[in-house]
Amino acid sequence: MMLTIRDPRAAELAKRLARVNHTTMTQAVVMALENELARERQKTPLADRLAAIAKKARTMSGPNARAMTKDQIDDLWGQ
């Protein structure tokens, strides 16, 4: 199967990556795609990141924390 790179920028990036890694353009493209797929697999879902932030905020608030109304929060922001 053939892979044709018609975008000049993509071709230049592939050439630069191949040059830096002392490899062919095909190997550079394969390596870049594999690395990007691995990076995508390692991403933490947004819900998990937000849960971690919320947990940290609860920990930082201490034992005497209290719930705040929207109006109280707006007052803190000067609104």
Question: Summarize this, please?
Answer:
By secondary structure, the protein is mainly alpha-helical. Helix content is 68%, strand content 0%.
User: What is the terminal-to-terminal distance?
Assistant: 60 Å
Mean pLDDT: 91
Approximate strand percentage? under 5%
Radius of gyration: 24 Å
By helix and strand content, what is the structural category?
mainly alpha
Order of helices and strands: HHHH
Instruction: Name the assembly state.
Output: single chain
What does this structure look like?
With 79 residues, this protein is mostly helical. The protein contains four helices and no strands. The protein has helices at 8-20, 25-42, 46-61, 70-76. α1 crosses α2 (25-42). The longest helix is centred in the middle third of the chain and has 18 residues, at 25-42. It is elongated, with a radius of gyration of 24 Å.
Spell out the key features of this protein.
mainly alpha, 79 residues
